[in-house]
Write a structure and sequence with these properties.
The complex is a heterodimer of chains A (240) and B (148). By secondary structure, chain A is mostly helical. Chain A has a domain at 55-181 and 197-226. Chain A is 78% helix and 0% strand. In chain A, 42% of the residues are buried. By secondary structure, chain B is α+β, with helices and mostly antiparallel strands. In chain B, strands 1-3-4-6-5 form a 5-stranded mixed β-barrel. Chain B is flat and about 80 Å long. Classes of the chains: A mainly alpha (240), B alpha+beta (148). Chain A binds chain B through residues 44-49, 53, 56, 78, 81-83, 116-120, 123-126, 163-164, 166-167, 171, 178-182, 184-187, 190, 193-197, 199-201, and chain B through 4, 7-8, 11, 15, 18-19, 22, 26, 30, 33-38, 56, 92-96, 103, 118-134, 146-148.
């Protein structure tokens, strides 16, 4: 709690982020280079999917961090509504478009994989549909936060949407277990151990860490921008 | 009660109620949320020939036959309890083969043969290099401890 309140002060956050950003950006670049090299040149082709398996190295990390990003967005919503955390609203405005981009990446790469493997670009099964709903929840958050004359009201409305949408996260995760879907069940995060061979799993995990650092870096950068924007708006109001 | 604590309980309470409502809706819709039915379910329900539906299962080994026109394929979809004969005219997806999961969309004919309009291959959750797959096959461990 102490750490959260320390960062709640925008000026203190800016000092923290100025120090953290070069490191997180550098780490993102290195991990993405190593991860993509491993994904394209080190990882073997799959015994059935052949080279198409390489799409997974982008698809799965994008899916994981879009879902974790949504959970983060909901946490920020709670921080705003319950604790009136001054930075939470700005960070939520920063995080929602990044989450939407990750969800879109997941949907588009999945479609490219589905065409050769399943024989279709898209089906309305429970996994694909709930993932599309997640993408729309991100878009809804972006739209709602900008839909009011006062930004504070927009922040609150978007925070409520973020919290309501959390119910979709377990639905995405367990859709493949609860119902028959065309999408395959979980390979990595499941009871009884992974069903991915280590030569494919290790590049996947490197890419997952790279995407996490990418998410952190983008949210830090965008939060700084949002703080600057809010200051400018307030200065403009004061000048009137 | 402090206002912060009050807001927290209000939030948790409303989220809990909402989650309960969504759960009830999903449980009620259960049968409509499945992407396909198994051959056993089809055999139990006997859908009319006008109803379009999807059947999913494994392509029974040794059941795939090519028609004389070179376009029609017939095969048996099995869930190991019930079997359903499927006839399909058109190009099959890359992953289609015997022993592989498949989803067929179409109608059940009066002769009991499922007339598929579309065939989708279902991929499983196992990923491994071809050498490992071969080694497992050779050692007789195929599909039992794959990927470990």
């Amino acid at each position: 709690m102490a750490g959260m309140h320390a960062l709640a002060n925008p000026a203190r956050f800016q000092r923290f982020s100025a120090r953290a950003l070069p490191w997180s950006a550098g780490l993102t670049a290195i991990l993405l280079l190593v991860g993509l090299y491993m994904a394209f040149f080190v990882a073997p082709p799959d015994y059935q999917q052949k080279e198409t398996v390489r799409i997974m190295f982008v698809h799965v990390p994008a899916a994981w961090w879009s879902m974790a990003g949504y959970a983060f967005l909901a946490g920020l919503g709670a921080a705003l509504l319950v604790w009136k955390h001054p930075l939470a609203a700005l960070m939520a405005r920063a995080a929602a478009p990044v989450g939407a981009a990750f969800a879109a990446t997941c949907l588009i790469t999945g479609s490219f994989w589905g065409r050769p493997m399943w024989g279709t670009w898209w089906v309305w099964d429970a996994r694909l549909t709930s993932m599309l709903v997640l993408f729309f929840l991100f878009l809804g958050h972006i739209a709602l936060s900008r839909a009011f004359d006062s930004p504070e009201r927009g922040d609150k409305a978007a925070a409520i949407l973020a919290l309501v949408g959390v119910i979709n996260l377990p639905i995405i995760k367990f859709s493949v277990d609860w119902w028959n879907t065309l999408h395959q069940p979980a390979s990595v995060m499941k009871l009884g151990g992974t069903t991915i061979h280590s030569s494919i799993l290790i590049p996947l995990l490197v890419m997952a860490v790279a995407f996490f650092m990418l998410f952190v870096t983008l949210v830090l950068m965008r939060t700084e921008t949002e703080i600057g924007r809010r200051r400018l708006e307030m200065a403009a109001l004061a000048a009137e | 009660m402090k206002p912060k604590r009050k807001r927290l309980w209000l939030l948790l309470g409303s989220m809990g109620a909402f989650a309960l409502a969504v759960t009830l809706v999903l449980v009620a819709l259960d049968d409509n949320l499945v992407f396909f039915h198994s051959p056993t379910q089809i055999a139990d329900k006997k859908p009319p020939p006008t109803q379009r539906l999807r059947v999913g299962g494994l392509v029974a080994p040794g059941s795939v036959e090519k028609g004389s026109d070179g376009l029609t394929t017939t095969f048996v979809v099995t869930d190991t309890r019930a079997n359903l004969k499927v006839s399909y005219r058109g190009q099959l997806p890359d992953l289609f083969r015997e022993g592989q999961g498949v989803v067929a969309e179409g109608t059940l004919g009066t002769d009991g043969v499922f007339l598929a309009r579309e065939i989708l291959a279902k991929h499983d959750e196992t990923y491994m290099p071809p050498e490992v797959a071969k080694a497992l096959k050779d050692a007789g461990h195929w599909k039992k401890d794959a990927g470990k």
